[in-house]
Structure formats: structure tokens, C-alpha cells
Amino acid sequence: PIDGKGPIKAEQFRPVESPAPSVLDRKPVSVPMQTGLKAIDALVPIGRGQRE
After folding, report:
1. pTM (2 d.p.)
2. Cα–Cα distance, 43 to 11 (Å, whole number)
3. Which of 13, 38, 43, 48 would be a feasible disulfide site paired with 31, CB 3.0-4.6 Å?
4. Do residues 47 and 31 make contact, with C-beta atoms less than 8 angstroms apart?
5. What angle do CA 44, 23, 15 make, to 5 degrees?
6. Rounded CA gap, 20 and 22, in Å?
């Protein structure tokens, strides 16, 4: 690694690109995420943890 701290010791490896879990497997999004732009927040509500 670039930081000079040596190799990363990981228990398991996962692919970087993987298919998204199905809608039924995901937790419901209940916490809104504010962008700080009133026009965006009013027109496009975004939930914390939302993937799309």
C-alpha cells in the first residue's frame, strides 16, 4: 500500500463489483438524508443507505 503500513490483513475477500441485494433483502430506508439544497431535498427525497 501507498501509506507504508504494510499489507492489509483481511479475514475474507469480497469482489468490488457485485450485484445489489434484492429489494426484499434490504433494510427499509427510514432516515432521510439532507443535501443542504432545498430544491433537491424537496424534489428528490434521498434516504440514508439508499443505493440508487
Report:
1. 0.39
2. 42
3. 48
4. yes
5. 100
6. 6
